Amino acid sequence: MGTIGIDLGGTTLSAGLVSQSGDITLRYTVDTDHSGADAIIEQICQLVRRIRGQSEQNTPTQVGIAIPGWVDSRRGRVVTCPNIPLQGVSLASEVSSALGCKVLLENDANCATLGEQKFGAAKDCQNLILLTLGTGLGGGAMVNGQLLSGVGSTEFGHILLVRGGLPCGCGRHGCREVYCSTTALLRMANEHSSQHHYRRAKELFAALAAGDAEAQAAFSEYLGYLADTIIDLITAFRPEKVLLGGGITGAGDALFLPLRAEVDKLCQGYIGGFDLPPILPAQNGNDAGILGAAALFF
User: Fold this and answer.
1) Dist CA 269 CA 36 (whole Å)
2) Span 2-113+287-295: which CATH code?
3) CATH classification (class only), 124-282
4) Which residues of the chain carry a pLDDT beneath 70?
5) Residues 6+ positions from 42 with CB-CB distance below 8 Å
6) H helix runs in 154-244, sequence order
7) pLDDT (tens digit, 9 = 90+) per residue, 194-242?
């Protein structure tokens, strides 16, 4: 059975033929067409047909689709999807009817979590937390080998962290996304800085490496919020591993060493009797959507 993973984003739409070992043997990417649902469905079908035509496997196809936003995975329906005109569309059945194959639909963060468990940094883990640090804060959870899914996703970014805090794009105030995303880190850095205007996280990490005291103050503030969030998730889920994804994780030890130290410090005398899980970078990177969508079948 040929398995194709679709990563449907606001900017690009990618499709890949994925083996059961997690190798992407064929891949195509196009700019996402925002003119309407029919156009996006046709784009997906064109990519699948192209892969079918290029594949050496003359076998039936199954297609997994990873998409941002709230998804009713059981019905294959998009509930709401910011920046992509698919709200209310029964995407799985529409694509399935057009292609004549089985199609599964899931939130992209949930797919990324599943992909890490199948192919990445959490192989064979039964209990897992993934946080994606970017413009916002996303994430997924696996409990006793089962992905937490259904309608929507595990919206960790919109759990309250600071009552009456800063406004969030969701309409509430004080959400974790406002304090733990890469966007939040840059905001804190610019609030603390008297000389620089930071646009990218790597600029801040360069300032940290140079010993900039203002950058360190901002980073310490950010680490506190992120550590609190991770500790709350450890308390709730008792995962075997906590994975972090997103471009910021490219900072490597400059991020992970002080973050682990902060979590360890805050947990002293709190999570007694339990070993803290390792906090690690996710491994699938830009392939997370394709691999996770394909993993819906594995």
Assistant:
1) 54
2) 3.30.420.40
3) alpha beta
4) 56-59, 150-153, 269-273
5) none
6) 177-180, 182-192, 201-209, 213-237
7) 989 999 999 999 999 999 999 999 999 999 999 999 999 999 999 999 9
